[in-house]
């Protein structure tokens, strides 16, 4: 029942844990191996989707409620990113003048009417922070509802930018691949320039964005967010992380800013964030910082990473209070019992705990799952029983009549989404095995007519398993691999499908 480190595990996955614990391999190397052996890091795509850093505190979905123009996304299923990109592109084009574009102006040419040069070089040592948190929050408040206050924002940003040649300096400094992209967003944040682009020295070794925005060192993963527009499933700038870049770079406090932006940032989090491993995924750095803030170490961090289902951005309010409490208590339990369990056992425990939590939320009368009084031996026994249950078919030979609710939908990106009902025990078993959850045990509910189970596939690949109450045509639960929650795009599509069912 105790630790198994005296014997090297044969499974490649646990060999990596053994390697981290016993060979003192660097955390950066271990994370590199972790990413190589995964199917790609999908999580940043839907956990860090925030176009507007105020989305959490305003309780609206970024890209849907941030601009009035965005409301038509419900009709045409246009993506939030495309719509917001349209609004920001309009703003950028108006900034550089309605009858001119960046492509056809000459360097040094002045805008007409002339800008009022509001930017001055910093002299001496400014007050750390300089109220950067309040200023950023006010800036993004001004960007709300661009359809109504476009002209006001254009005038404000034109004043901050000054000479139009500043835009060309940024473009040329960044290079042809990302120059236009970065210049647009740098202009949008021009009120926070500390220095003029004209004073940047190419051979100084300091990147143009650090020259514009920072006084202090910033984690590399935040710097990289400016140019991760290609190959990482997004075509837009993640403003949340850019806000962090500016706040840290100008001596501000993430904890203070969290009260204005609706983030969940506690004391000492920023300290641990600055010492996080170098990764292109800010969510992982946040996870590292929060686990260390709770008293964990690198081993605890990698155990959570390999557990996969607990890999979240702990600074967002996208998770409900109940899940946030469950997540924190689970991590604390793993930290307290670090020496009593092996790496493989920690993964079994995580899978079992998430299963128990999701089932408790489904059956409200059972009460919430908690860790109080749970001993290691008992938890390990329950975890192994759950793992064994997943490997055994249940009701494999049974079949039942479907509801006739299958549906196929092609979105504007030509991605094909299929809602396919599972109508026999073998299909449920295969779904549960692939998705790594307990849907195979739901055969009895389907036979009795209590539940209807559907698999949502994207381009033929299963992404979400859905349970529907066939009597009331209501959604009971929808979970992805290892009981992950649907992302924004999937949630929207499921809602559209449920509405379609109710109209039949």
From TrEMBL:
> Pfam families, from UniProt?
PcfJ
InterPro entries per UniProt: PcfJ
What protein name is recorded for this chain? PcfJ domain-containing protein
Q: Which organism is it from?
A: Costertonia aggregata
């Amino acid at each position: 029942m105790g630790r198994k480190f005296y014997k090297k595990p044969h499974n490649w996955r646990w060999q990596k844990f053994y390697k981290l614990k016993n060979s003192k391999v660097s955390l950066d190397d271990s994370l590199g191996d972790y990413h190589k052996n995964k199917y790609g890091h999908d999580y940043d795509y839907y956990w860090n989707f925030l176009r507007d850093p105020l989305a959490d505190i305003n309780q609206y979905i970024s890209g849907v409620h941030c601009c009035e123009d965005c409301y038509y996304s419900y009709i045409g299923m246009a993506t939030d990113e495309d719509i917001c990109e349209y609004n920001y592109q309009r703003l950028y084009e108006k900034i550089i003048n309605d009858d001119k574009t960046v492509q056809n102006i000459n360097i040094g040419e002045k805008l007409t009417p002339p800008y009022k040069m509001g930017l001055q070089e910093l002299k001496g040592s400014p007050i750390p922070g300089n109220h950067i948190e309040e200023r950023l929050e006010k800036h993004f408040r001004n960007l709300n509802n661009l359809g109504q206050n476009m002209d006001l924002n254009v005038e404000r940003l034109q004043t901050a930018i000054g000479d139009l040649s500043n835009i060309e300096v940024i473009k040329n400094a960044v290079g042809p691949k990302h120059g236009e992209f970065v210049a647009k967003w740098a202009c949008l944040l021009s009120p926070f320039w500390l220095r003029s682009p004209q004073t940047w020295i190419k051979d100084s070794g300091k990147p143009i964005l650090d020259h514009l925005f920072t006084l202090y060192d910033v984690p590399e993963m935040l710097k990289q967010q400016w140019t991760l527009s290609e190959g990482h499933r997004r075509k837009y700038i993640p403003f949340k992380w850019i806000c962090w870049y500016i706040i840290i770079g100008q001596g501000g406090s993430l904890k203070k800013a969290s009260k204005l932006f609706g983030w969940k940032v506690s004391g000492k989090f920023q300290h641990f964030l600055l010492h996080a491993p170098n990764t292109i995924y800010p969510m992982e750095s946040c996870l590292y910082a929060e686990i260390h803030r709770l008293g964990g170490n690198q081993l605890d961090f990698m155990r959570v990473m390999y557990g996969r289902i607990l890999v979240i951005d702990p600074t967002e309010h996208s998770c409900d209070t109940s899940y946030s409490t469950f997540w924190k208590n689970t991590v604390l339990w793993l930290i307290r019992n670090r020496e009593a369990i092996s790496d493989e056992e920690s993964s079994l425990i995580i899978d079992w705990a998430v299963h128990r939590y999701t089932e408790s939320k489904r059956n409200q009368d059972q009460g919430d799952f908690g860790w109080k009084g749970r001993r290691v031996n008992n938890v390990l026994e329950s975890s192994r029983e759950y793992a064994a249950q997943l490997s055994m078919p249940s009701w494999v030979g049974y079949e039942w009549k479907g509801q006739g609710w299958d549906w196929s939908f092609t979105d504007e990106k030509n991605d094909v989404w299929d809602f396919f009902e599972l109508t026999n025990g073998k299909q449920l078993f295969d779904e549960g095995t692939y998705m790594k959850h307990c849907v195979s045990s739901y055969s009895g509910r389907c036979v009795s007519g209590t539940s209807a189970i559907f698999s949502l596939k994207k381009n033929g690949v299963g992404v979400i398993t859905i349970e529907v109450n066939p009597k009331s045509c209501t959604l009971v639960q929808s979970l992805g691999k290892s009981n992950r929650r649907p992302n924004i795009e999937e949630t929207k599509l499921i809602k559209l499908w449920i509405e379609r069912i109710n109209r039949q």
